[in-house]
Amino acid sequence: MNRVLTFVFMLVVGLTILACQGDKSTDNSAVTAPAVAPVTATPPPAAGGAAAGVEHYICPSGHVGSGGPSQGACAQCGTALVHNQAFHANDAAPAAAPAAQNPMLQNPGAPAAAAPPTEPAQNAAGVWHYTCSAGCAGGGASAVPCSQCGATLAHNQAYHN
Length: 161
Fold this sequence. Notes:
By secondary structure, the chain is α+β, with helices and mostly antiparallel strands.
């Protein structure tokens, strides 16, 4: 009888150990999330870009499906999303893709558009679409070097409001 109880006890202990080996749960309280840029309220995306499947903001690393309608962070790598000029190109009628187009600016499978329509550098309220990240006066219609200091102009979300 003593041997049977010892055998049963060892069997229960052994099965318990084997059952717990697959449980790799850890305390995740020490893990920190990557820094995320603050998300600001933005207007709904324009119908042209959204209907064509091109995100307004995309991951600069090219992660497919991680973009969105507003600034934020990539769900896959945590990098801050960047403005996608191709989103505005889809407001025009879709046409064949230019051979030299940058593939990272559009989601795969999305219809390409002809040359992007030229948006005015300033909206009706006088807000520049792109402004100097160094704070120089003025701005531009695209992310080109600042005419005063040479820094690349940054997208100004207030232009769309």
